[in-house]
Amino acid sequence: MDRIIEKKKWTTTKIALIAGSALFLVFLVYLIFLRDKSSKVYIDRDQLTIATVMQDKFQEFIPVDGVVLPKTTIYIDAIMGGNVQEVYVEDGAILKKGDKILKLVNTNLELSYMEQETRIFEAINNLQNTKIGLEQNKFLRQSEIVKVQQDIEKLRVGFERQCKLYSDSLISDQEFEDAERNYRFARKQLDINLQLQRLDSISAYSRNKQIDISMSRLYNNLDLLRESLGNLYVKAPADGKLSSFDIQVGQTASSGDHLGQIDVPDDYKLRANIDERYISRINIGQEAEFEFGGRIYLLNISKIFTDVTSGTFQVDMDFSEGYPPHIKRGQTIQLRLKFSGESDAVIVKRGGFFQQTGGNWIYVLDPTEAFATKRSIKINRQNTLHYEVTEGLLAGEKVIVSSYENLGNKDKIVFR
C-alpha cells in the first residue's frame, strides 16, 4: 500500500540560502554603518618618537646668545688732531688714570698757542698797569688831602691869633676878615677833596673788581690754551685695560678720531641679539639665566636697543648676584630669557610634529598602543624643551612628537 511522504519545510538548501542571505545583510550593514572609514597608514613604531604627556612645572623662555662685554667702557678719542710722534703703550696694557698713551705733534697748533699766549700776556700787563695807575691815583689824592690839611692847620693857627689881636683892636677889620675868609675857604677845599677821594675810591673799587675778573678770565684762557696743547698727549681717562688700540708712529689722527678704549676691570655685562618678533615682550628688568660651572647665574635687562638690524635687536644685561670667575671679554654664553615664572601645566615634549600641524592637532596612542589617532589640541606657550597644552590632552597619555612629514596626513596610524 502506498504512503504519502510529507515535504520538509526546512531543507538543507533552504537553510543554507537563508544563512547566506543573513550573512550578506550583516556584511552590508557592516560596510554601511560599522566599517572604519578612516584613512590609515601602517608604519613601524621604531620609526616614530613617542612621548608621554606630563603634568609638571612649566616656564616660558627662549634661548639667546650673550657676548661678554665690560660693563663700563670709556672711549679714547683724539681731542686735537696731529701726527703720532710717540706711542708709549701697547694694546692690552693695564693703565692707571693719567698714564700717557701716545703723543701727537701739531706745528700749527703750537704756533697758534704761542701767538695767543703773547696776546694774553700783553692784555694781562695792560690790566696790571691800569691797576697800578689806580693805586697811584689813590695815593696822589691822599697826598693832596694831607697838603690841604696842613694848610688848614696853618690858617687855623693864624686865624686864632688874628682873633685875639682883633679882640684887642690891634688889627683892622679888613685883616681879620681876610684871615677868616682864607680859613673858611681852606676848609671848604678840604671837604671837596674828601668827597673826591670818596668818589675815586668807589670808582677804583669797581674798576679793580672788573680788572680782577678780566685778569681771571685771561688766566683761565691761558690755562685752556695750555690744556689744549697738553691734549697732544693722549692719556688714560681712568684705570683699566687698554683695548681696540692699533696706532702706529707717523699715523695722522684727526680731531674726534677713535683711538681706543679703556675697559674697567672686574665689571661685566652681556649683550644679546633677540629676534624682532619678541620686541614687544622685552622690558627693562626682565630676567635671564645661564648655568656656568654647575651654578645658575641671574641677569636683568638694563638697556634695550630698539633699532632692528637683520631681523634682530640688542639688549644689555647686568649680573644680579655676581658673575662667574674667569669669564673673558668677547666670550659667548647661551642664556635662557624668561617670559614667565614657573607654573603647573600639562606639557608635551617639543618635536617635529609642530611644523606640520601648527600645534592644532596631534596623534594620540590608543590605550592598547596598537594604533594612534588624530586629536585636536590647543598649544599656548612654549620653550626649548616643551609645549604647554591647554586643551585636548591629559597627563599620562602618549603622543607621537616626531615629524609627520611622511605620514600623509592620515586619520589613523597602525603600528606593525
Description:
- 35% of the residues lie in helices and 33% in strands.
- With 416 residues, the chain is an alpha+beta fold.
- The chain has four domains: 36-60 and 343-415, conserved putative lor/sdh protein from methanococcus maripaludis s2 fold (Beta Barrel), CATH 2.40.420; 62-71 and 267-338, Elongation Factor Tu (Ef-tu), domain 3 (Beta Barrel), CATH 2.40.30.170; 73-106 and 232-262, RNA polymerase II/Efflux pump adaptor protein, barrel-sandwich hybrid domain (OB fold (Dihydrolipoamide Acetyltransferase, E2P)), CATH 2.40.50; 107-230, Helix Hairpins, CATH 1.10.287.
- The strands form five sheets. The chain has a six-stranded mixed sheet, with no helix packed on it. The chain has a six-stranded antiparallel barrel with strand order 4-13-16-15-14-17.
- β19 and β20 form a beta hairpin.
